[in-house]
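hey so i finaly got around to running the thing on Cytochrome ubiquinol oxidase subunit I from Pontivivens nitratireducens. pasting the sequence first so u can double check i didnt mess up the copy paste, my clipboard has been acting weird all day
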Amino acid sequence: MLGSFDAILLARIQFAFTVSFHFLFPAFTIGLASYLAVLNGLWLWTRDGRYLDLFRYWVKIFALAFAMGVVSGIVMSYQFGTNWSVFSDKAGPVIGAPMAYEVLSAFFLEAGFLGIMLFGRSRVGDTLHMIACAAVAFGTFFSAFWILSVNSWMQTPTGFEIDAITGQFMPVDFWQIIFNPSFPYRLVHTVTAAYLTTAFIVGGVGAFHLLRHRRRGETPTPATRTMFSMAMWMAAIVAPVQIFLGDLHGLNTLEHQPIKVMAMEGHYESHPEGAPLYLFGLPNDETQTLDYAIGIPKVSSLILRHDLNAPMDGLDTIPDDEQPPVAIVFWSFRVMVALGFAMLGIGLWSLLARMRRQLYDATWLHRAALIMAPSGLIAVLAGWITTEVGRQPYTVYGLLRTADSAAPLAAPAVGASLVAFIVIYFSVFGAGTFYILRLMGRQPSSKEPRLADSVKGPIRTAGTTPAPEEATRRPDTTETGA
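ok and heres what it spat out for the 3d tokens, dont ask me to read them lol
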């Protein structure tokens, strides 16, 4: 049955499936690691028990999400050698070093200090524990730095030359490879998105407990109120910043990948006297038209060129085999933008409620925040889809086509591994996600137990079990008369 499918399409679906699962966890843990560092710093500064309770509450969730992110990320790297071996051979001299540095620097930094962060508060002292929390937070950011540098190079390749014999991309200027033209914009836009993702998950959990307390006639715990308040501050401050950063990123994309912007805007036709901003439409690649289009005249030119009458090229200037799948890019971009403005709305709403001293009593705000809890995860996936599908039909933009990057595998082989991934991922990560949701469903309480207190003891995988403490204690010689 799988033999009737295209092997390259199956390989693309497999990578998209695995990276979508993986991307959700770093998008959450990048922001959560920084949130934990802030909570720990506030606890050390004020000795206010609310911050310690919140740290102990969220650090358990962070540990689970971090572990699932690591496991899901390992699988992706293997696909470079199985499904995309030609891409690895040609681009490996350039992207191999940054990906190795991500492991040697960022991941080792996270892994090295994670144990101290989770279990070391009472063992190493406050100062070293705070350093560990900051190191883990920086490690998550540094990991994103290297991965996004690689991805950005694939979007805007620089600092290389192509070997005339092997066809490989050979590095010429390492700094140009790392700091390629789209990298700074993609880095700040993606990391800020991760912070917003965490803020809305934390805010959604806080809103859930505030609503449940109100329904039961109970008083919310101080930690619950603080959690919701901090999340709403992040939404109010960071959401408008993210919209501004997204605009800068869009202008950079217009400069270096104009075809992607044409697909995002749904501009099949060129507009010599100002392009409209299409709010809705049904892209039709066969007829090269946007059916049932609803737009605002000349606003796209105003946003992208800062001039109402600025001419904008359309896909009619691009050969058909150079165009990405417009419908996917068009709609994923609109999902991302719509969620961004919805986040801004929640942030402004929370400011209004705060000014009226109703932040903890605004039922409809809490309901909206609960509904918006997964919005950051959906938005980062939509943004990733816009970026990656908009780059098609290339893996290295303008230089190496996707069709020329795949390994020479038959469709049944790729399809079988895809089915296996789907079954295993939904089983393993579904169970992990369910457990995380259960932890979130329990409110943060006063004197929140430490992570070490929530388990009986370490798992001894070597099979040896220490003797009971009573059996190892030396006898008191004064009682035996010795």
